[in-house]
Design goal:
Blueprint lengths: L2 E2 L1 E4 L15 H14 L3 E5 L5 H13 L4 E7 L2 H11 L5 E8 L2 H8 L3 H16 L5 E6 L6 H14 L3 E6 L6 H14 L7 E6 L6 H10 L4 E4 L13 H10 L6 E2 L7 H12 L20 H9 L27 H10 L6 H17 L5 H12 L6 E11 L2 E11 L2 E8 L3 H13 L4 E9 L8 E9 L2 E9 L2 H21 L8
Parallel strand pairs: 1-10, 2-3, 2-9, 3-4, 4-5, 5-6, 6-7, 7-8, 8-9
Antiparallel strand pairs: 11-12, 12-13, 14-15, 15-16
Helix pairs in contact: 1-2, 1-10, 2-3, 5-6, 6-7, 7-8, 10-14, 13-14, 15-16
The protein binds 3-methyl-2-oxobutanoic acid (KIV) and zinc ion.
Length: 511
Amino acid sequence: MKEKLYIFDTTLRDGEQSPGASMNTAEKIRIATQLEKLGVDVIEAGFPASSEGDFEAVSEVAKKVVNSEIAALCRASVNDIDRAWKAVRHAAHPRLHTFLATSDIHMTYKLKMSREEVLATAVDAIKYAASFTDNVEFSAEDGSRSDPDFLCQIFETVIDAGAKVVNLPDTVGYAIPKEFGELVAYVMKNTPNIDKAILSVHCHNDLGLATANTLAAIHAGARQAEVTINGIGERAGNTSLEELVMTLHTRPTYVPVTTGIETKRIHPTSRLVSMITGIMVQPNKAIVGANAFAHEAGIHQDGVLKNPMTYEIMKPETVGLTSNRMVMGKHSGKHALRKHLKNMGYDLSEDEVKIVFEKFKVLSDKKKIVHDEDIEALVNEGILRTSDIYSLEYLHISSGTTVFPTASVKISINGKVIKGTGTGNGPIDATYHTISEMTQTRSELLRFSINALTDGTDAQGEVTVRLKEDGLIALGRGTDPDIITASAYAYVNGLNRLEYLKQNPPQESGL
Ligand code: KIV
Ligand code: ZN
């Protein structure tokens, strides 16, 4: 029988460390619920000591999810462990995940601690965490650049102290697959009590090798992989769940392990994470990129028509890509929408279906065919943005070859509607200036991108912006058939995210 590989998803923690990707509690719950359906074994919901917002999000995710374990990250200190436990204790299956750096460079310069002090601190932290739960994980931060013998020593010691999972991170994405596989094999061989724990790996993608390194580690005996959806995460990101899972699925004899992942849910999960974080998936991204299953060359298209396996190593349906589009128009009813939402994996309450249906009616007045991507956007905008401070109520633009671009805007600020007018050197500039004046915000627009949500000239525009104010960075996203309106929605969404960050400022976390 194949051995089990545990999938530990850290989209909500390491993934959230992608610049601008911070999520509010409702958004985190939505992603966590989807990850649970996807079948991940562990969901790392956040780092409760890092901010009030993270504390609340971990508590709420812990209360909601029943099938996956919920992990809370904490430094190796009493205060962090207390905060993490207080947030995660509500979970059906809680896990405390504590970390401490073990490489000479981190111990000398960052921690200013000797090896003996690091060992003692790690043991104290594990014992303290184990007084709350027997499900404790220890991460040796910068493990791939640590002395292998010290790594074995600290793993042996923390396992004796109660750690059930020991994690070897390639924190700075420096490892090479062969060397990383050998390090894992060395740890498996030279940690005398390793059979009492699961060895995990956590790879970053600075050299584009995160998935390859994780695979090499699994080949050498690691049985937990820490991953994120779409590979998002600190700097160049983490090992991507979809790449790892589909490699194991497509090449089942290379490493004979099984996962509990329902591969058909991969694509919808990828879309959801991209929509909520505002981080677009690059078109050529393996498995979930827009071009991952698109055949451009005539010779390939001909081959695929004759037999898909000539050029396709995976079936698009296996990852949940379906050509079975929702063809609905303005005469379609609420019942059909409810049914389709369910097929798409959304279990919405009656009130939520009503909100989406109202938005659907407005959209289907403007657009003949409503696609799954449109429905996802409606769900995202209708259900997840309920606690927003700002909302766009009205927008009128005059612009053209002979007109000075002018925007007239109505915005609701904490429920109070105000009006404003302003100009700019184009319609989007005019809209953004006006909204900025009305909200008295001074954010800088770092990036603006626009994309068509589906094919066809009637497609909705999907705009993503990156805003910066007082050192805080937030992404915003908006969709509408009118691209100026979509741009305004994206800007307002970015401002709401900045407000959330102002109210929940991230603290110096030592990561
Ligand atoms: O990259 C890293 O080392 C981490 C640890 C906290 C596991 O994210
Ligand atoms: Zn990391």
